[in-house]
Every structure is written in structure tokens, then in C-alpha cells.
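dumping this here before i forget
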Amino acid sequence: MQNLHPVRSYERQIVDDLRELIRIPSVEDAPAADAPFGEHAARALGFVLERGAALGFSIRNVDNYAGHVQYGQTGPLIGVLVHLDVVPAGDGWKHEPFGAEFEDGCVYGRGASDNKGPAIAALYCLKAFADRVPEPRVRIRVIFGTNEESGMECMKHYFAVEELPEIGFSPDAAYPLYNREKGIFDAHLRARRSGTQLVTAVSGGEALNMVANSATAGVVAAFADAARGVVERYRTAGAVEPRVRIEENGDELGLTAAGVSAHGGSPAGGVSAIAHLVHVLAEVARVAESAAANDPRAPVEPQLLALGDLIGFETRGESLGIACRDEESGDLSVNWGKLIVDQTHIEAALNIRYPVTADYARIVSVLKSRLADLGFELEVRNHLAPLFIPEDSPLIVKLLRAYARVTGSEAKPQSMAGGTYARMLKNRGVAFGAGFADEDTRAHKPDEFIRIESLMRHAEISTEALFELAGEPGSPTPSPQSRA
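structure:
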């Protein structure tokens, strides 16, 4: 009979709890009483803390920003940082986004892999550790946040109250391990509209760390015929711009662009609806520039069309003047996450991720100068400094040893464009798991899922990591060959 890792005995509970957690649509919402990121985020936090208490652990809720489940009362503090919030569902799902459907060994739903599956697994990894170590020499906390996807204010608040772990990891990426995370900040651009108006309004994107999968614009009547002609020309030519379609609504003409969502840390992996929409609008302006309704003394939407030139389809910041790279972590990336145009102003928001050795101050300075020339004000929000821990550090050696014990494979640390809670540990922690390189779980995309066998393999590795970091003997029964 095959020997099973002790955490495998909790598989049924893990699946049941995960499905229940997915059914809580914990997308950030308007603050409510005692719910800084919305009622659903607070519900998700309450759910996991109740589960932790039921498993016999002590719990703490820090103002519904974040909370922890703890085992052990004395000794060094080890942290496992996970998050319960999710990005908006978006369009294009075959499965109900918050239905937690189970099919062919997989659970589908927004947050299944990012990060609710690993969050629930962390509870039962702690339980498997506690089963083996009745008198721990350390304290282990699974720390649950509710605002990872849009700023990590949850952890900033939590660590203003609670102590920083001496060592830890965040299972919010992929195996084997990431000891380098790019710096991240959000750039909010705002300008007053000027010139001849081409659009009545524009709305695009749902979250800054998602490639926009939809964008809409209302076209001013004087430009309606030009817009129809441009869209038809692209359609008959078979060009990529058929992603933009016309919607007639009485006297109003609308344009709707369809993109492909992807994680904002890898914008080249998606298709930006905003970029496609602005590209078509720029072509409409060019075609109609000699029309009688277009005052030649007033350029058409100069700020909006300038954004198309400066950002457009680019994802590395070349035209913005901020493109850079390093050997440690690769290229800077720019995701055009949101665009809003109302009667008086244009507002755009970018999610920018820069290499670990890049000069953050210089990037912001160049960006501010380039945008000021076009009449845009720049506001930087949610800056997260890079993470970089040498691969010979004890933390990395121990975590990779746990990985090798379960998988039978040796591995090297890697670099990532995403941002995890690991950077909140101030170079005391790294991203470790929970995904595997050969599986795309469609995080931040329609039909996100997690394969239960993969989640349980992660749970084995994560449990072994707790033994390693706590200085305890590992499980006697991991058997990588039997589960390969």
C-alpha cells in the first residue's frame, strides 16, 4: 500500500473549505462598518479564522484588515502569508465565477488558485505539523490578508500592530521559489480635456493588476460616420482591430473593445481592450480631421491620443522613456489598467513593475517629466519596494530542501514580475509555491481553477517547509516517486 503524507488525510476538509470560501465573492468593495475592504472580504476573513479556531489554534482578527491563526506560544515566529481577496471576475466564464464547481478533479472559481486554495491548504499544513509536534519550540502563524490585489494596505495595518515574523514565505506564486520580486507602483494620470471632443465618455478596465478585457466609448455625433468607416475598414481587412465593434443606440454611437485579461505583472500575455479602443479612436480622428465639424484650430482630443502614442500596445515603457532591465529580474513592465474620460477630465492608471536593481526615483522623475509636457499630473500610489534575497541564505536553502524532499527534484531560485506578501517581510521571506510550472491555473483569467492533486502536492511541500523552518524532523513518509 502506498504511503501517504500526513497532510493527505485532510484532503476532504481542504476541498470542502475551499469551495465554501470561493463562494464568498471577496472582491474589494466600498468600505463598510468594520469592513475596510467591503463586507465580503471581512466575511472571508471571519470564515478562515473560525476554521482555525475549530482546528484548535489561537486566532486574532486585526480590525478586519488581516488576521492570523497561530500554533505555539513561545520561540521564534514563523509566518506563512496568504490572501483572501480576489480580482473581479470579468467576462468570458464557462463556469460560474463564484460557484466553486467541482469537475474532473478540479475546483473552478475566482480565487481558486490565487490565493484561496493555498490559503485553505495552509490551515491544514499547520494542523499536520501540530499533529506531529505537540510541543513546538517556535510559533507559527498563518497570516491572512484581504487587500493583496490592490495595494497590500491590509498587511501594512496588520504589521503596525503585530510583530514581524523572523522568517517566512508566501505561497502565492509558483514552485520552486522566487527570491526576486520586482518593485511595483501604480501611476495615476489626470488631465483636463482640451481641444475638439471626439468622445462623450470612455470607460475601460476593472483593476490595475489585470489586463483590461473590455473598454467602451461614446463617440461625438460629428465623428460617427468616420468611426463607422474606420471600424468597417478594419473588419473587412481582417486586421486585429475587429476587437472593436460598433453599438448603435438611437442617436448615440458606441464603440466597445474586447481584450483578453491576464495578470498585470505579465501584460504581454494578454490583449489590452484599452489599447485597441484608443488606437481606433486615433484613426477616427485622423480620418475626420478635415471634416467640417472639426475646428482646425483645436486639435482632436490631444491628451487622449497622446496616451495612445505614449502607452498604446507597448508593455515595456519604451515611449514613456522608462524602459529598463537587469539580469536579475528582466524587463520593466507597464500595464494600462484603467481609463476614464468624463465631461471634463481624462484619467488613466498604470501598474508599473521595475527591475530589482533599477533606480525607482529616476523612473518616477522621467515619467513625471514626460507626462507634464502633455498636461498630465502624476500621482504615485501603492509603491512596493523590490525583494531580493541571496540564494545561499538559510531560508532559501531550507525551503528548497523541503521542495526536493517531496518532489525528488533539485531546483534554483527564480525571479518574478508579480508582487506577493513576501516583500512585506522586509527581506525575511520569499514566494514559495503554490503553483507548478507545467500548469496554467488561469489566475486573473476566466475559468480560474485549481487541480486538487496539485493543491495536495503543494500541501505536502508546504508542510515539509514548516518542519524545516521550525528545526523539526520532516515527515517520515513523503514518497515523490509514487506520486510523480
